[in-house]
Amino acid sequence: MAAKIDFFVSEAEKRLLNQFPDIEGEAEAFAEQEFERLGTILDPERFDLADAAEMAHDRSLERYQLLSDMQRDIILTLATALYHDWEKELREWLVRELAHNFDMTKLEPRLWAINITELLDFLKALGWDPRLLSDFRHVEDCRLVVNVFKHGLGRSFEELKANAPQFLKSDFLSEAQFLKYADHRSISISLEDLRDFQRGLKQFWLELPENIFWSDNIVAPTWFEKALAKKP
Fold first, then answer.
1. Separation of alpha carbons 22 and 85, rounded Å
2. Fewest Cβ atoms nearer than 10 Å: which of 2, 4, 179, 217?
3. Rounded Cα–Cα distance for residues 64 and 71 (Å)
4. Per residue in 124-154, pLDDT tens?
5. Domain count, the chain
6. DSSP line for the chain
7. Looking at residues 15-28, what average pLDDT do you find?
8. The dihedral of CA 103, 107, 109, 112: what is its sign?
9. In 3D, which of 230, 198, 218 has the Cα closest to residue 9?
């Protein structure tokens, strides 16, 4: 899985993100082209060169913002794919490991139904706490970013605002001022952030124990016991 994550990010950079080498420079070149184009079509009796320059500047700003938003949304989409693949692979791994000791008829659906917090708590109960990993904070950040990208305002947004406000950015206001007015549309993520998520998810798979060794000393959560006790 670690190699798959590296491949995904590396190829995404080459095939997608390298299409945005210099958005600012592209916008400036567009402004020059637009200025020349407007100079050939505007009525000189109604518009002068200053008008054409202002129009070209406004349109270049619009183009810059559109490209910047597109780049951000592509990175957010890549982060979403990384995170959901990690979570699905984790659930599948647990199903395979627990199948050595339990009838999975009722247990497998519960493993797919519980939320990620319950899943991580279960790993801790099994004797391995991923939250203690040095880079696991990046996995948590990725979860919050992805949930806000998917669902907008709600509990994940409030959690993101409280615990990872660095993903809510403004070019014009201080962080304290901006956070008062920020919403899910204010989310901002860079290629470096994606690489941080990559590092956290990769470390998880590299450190994950190879197998689960079940023992009577494991204190199983309530949902686990109920699933096992559930009658057909």
1. 30
2. 217
3. 11
4. 999 999 999 999 999 999 999 999 999 988 8
5. 1
6. -HHHHHHHHHHHHHHTGGG-S-HHHHHHHHHHHHHHHHHHHS-TTT--HHHHHHHHHHHHHHHHHHHHHHHHHHHHHHHHHHHHHHHHHHHHHHHHHHTTTS-HHHHHHHHHHS-HHHHHHHHHHTT--GGGSTTHHHHHHHHHHHHHHHH-SSHHHHHHHHH-GGGB--SSS-HHHHHHH--GGGB---HHHHHHHHHHHHHHHHHS-S-----TT----HHHHHHHH---
7. 88
8. negative
9. 198
Q: Name the token pair of 127.
A: 């004797």
SS (H, E, C) 82-113: HHHHHHHHHHHHHHHHHCCCCCHHHHHHHHHH
Residues in the chain: 232
Query: Domain range for residue 24?
Result: 2-229
Per the prediction, the chain carries an average pLDDT of: 89
Are residues 122 and 221 in contact, defined by beta-carbon separation less than 8 angstroms?
A: yes
Hey, what amino acid is at 81?
Answer: A
- Joined tokens for residue 171: 């070019």
Query: 53-82: per-residue pLDDT in tens?
Result: 888 888 899 999 899 889 999 999 999 999
Give 59's contacts (C-beta < 8 A, 6+ positions apart): 30, 31, 34
User: Which phi and psi angles does 187 have, rounded to 5°?
Assistant: -65, 140
User: Residue 84 has which token pair?
Assistant: 């959901």
